[in-house]
Fold:
Amino acid sequence: MPLQRNILVFRTGQLGDTIVSLPAIHAIRAAYPDHRLILLTPNQPGNLVSPLEILGDSKIFSQVLFYVTPRARALASIHTVALSIKIWRLKPEALFYLRGLPWDHFWRDRFFFQLLCGISKTYGLNGSEDIFGRRDASGGLCRCPSEVERLLHIVAEADSGGLASQNVNFGIPISRKDSCRIDSLWKEAGMLKNELIIALGPGSKMPAKRWPLERFIEIGRYLLAKFTNSRLIVFGGSEDFSLGEVLKHNLGARVLNFAGLLSVLESAEGLRRCSLYVGNDTGVMHLAAAVGTPCVAIFSARDHPGRWEPYGLNHIVLRKNPHCAGCLLQVCSDRRMICLTEITVSEVLEAIEGILKKRGECQPVESPKVGVIN
Structure:
């Protein structure tokens, strides 16, 4: 029996973190076609999403190691040693450390993987220039590479040819079952082929990222009045369902609320059929961009520009840059979210109409043509 050759991939985070890591994961698979890929990820609480939930059916990972981090220090130490032994026994040839920035636990993780687990080749754990908080000559926050590009750069460290890491492939594995579910919802809603379908993303797990809901209502009123063949669909998690209900109550029957009702892959197929996404910086936005749907993305200034913007060239990002930019706050009380409230309804509508005019169409995308699993 041939010796198993293992590659360990470490990634944590929520839906958006997972989506932006997919091109890097596919690039690792392409660079190591004969190896077993092992995913190391936390046992996600609540509605957080790991790469396994999206890529499980694609069989990219041969094995998944889940871990928990107990609050009690003594118990945490026991879990750490047990996990290191488990990884050491697998003898991974390399580790791809795809954890998000900032690296609060960089040195701890370096000690864990390189010394305790005995992994000599560690990509993404070899130090990185810290640009958080750095400003340019005009006083604005420096622009960062996108997270997609940063993670692909990590893969490029190992892929000497660079071919695998140059191919940006999100590879969302939408199945026939996912497609049929959306077909059923479209039919139930009486959706027509000539309708303009616009996705709305009014939610976010971080209050500091939420553009005021009343402005989404204004956007909806304008779009429904101007485009008589339009429908608005609210996407998001279960925590966003109540926001969708408020939009439905204010805007009427041409608004559908799918928040919390779809799986990640069903949401991907629904977003793929939309002409446009309009909403906050959320996992739904990254999912829309990953399936090729143009985004009007409404961004707070809590983080550096560039880092979390939707990947691709067909998007418009709306962002202001007050002096408090780069705060990394999850809740903004003192400044009352000035970076978001300065983004006007008129600016968002101008961006929407700009994308629709550029596309020159008001048609929904029809049946899936790529990335579908039977």
